[in-house]
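Supplementary Methods, section 5.1.

A reviewer requested that the exact input to the structure prediction be made available. We therefore reproduce it here, unchanged from the version used in the analyses.
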Amino acid sequence: MSNPFARASYLLAAHTPQQLPPDGGFEVAFAGRSNAGKSSALNALCQQNALARVSKTPGRTQQLVFFALPPHENRYLVDLPGYGYAKVPRDLQAHWQAFLARYFREREALKGLVVVMDIRHPLKDYDRQMIAFAVEHGMPAHVLLTKADKLGRGAAGNTLQAVRRELQAQHGDKVSVQTFSGESKVGVDEARAVIARWLRIAPPAAA
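The structure derived from this sequence is encoded token-by-token as follows.
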């Protein structure tokens, strides 16, 4: 299967709502703790080694980073800042939280949220909050339990089932869950299929 994200490229980083691209088309946002493997997941999905690092500049923590997906017009992957508000001044925490709330509330193009969690440390408070945020705003969420290669198959499967049970009890079918590894490529095709569906990027025709 060809990769619909293989030509992803850095577009812009937005620190304020005014810097966002025009609100049309389709975009999927990625959220996760700073050490959960979000950059590695984005790079694996797009088959690029350093895509998610292109925009690493001072102040990156408070920015939404947009990646365009040519040849598809108005299709974007959006890298949200890694959780870690305690590491920035309080006024910047307030700015980011207000910006994020407005983005989720008003952004018509936002079609889904991917929440990245280390499979060894899933469902921390911010993870639950982000998932609830998405569901409250009427959009689906998809959880990537990353670094699945760090656990044996049995342990990874047990964690997957435990996370799935908790999220289904809370949110029903609005949240899906899978194991994922940017290192071993476990789950990469599955995740691409979910995101491509949200972006309304047609899968390649069967040979």
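The beta strands are 9-14, 26-32, 64-68, 75-79, 110-118, 141-146, 175-179. These observations are discussed further in the main text.
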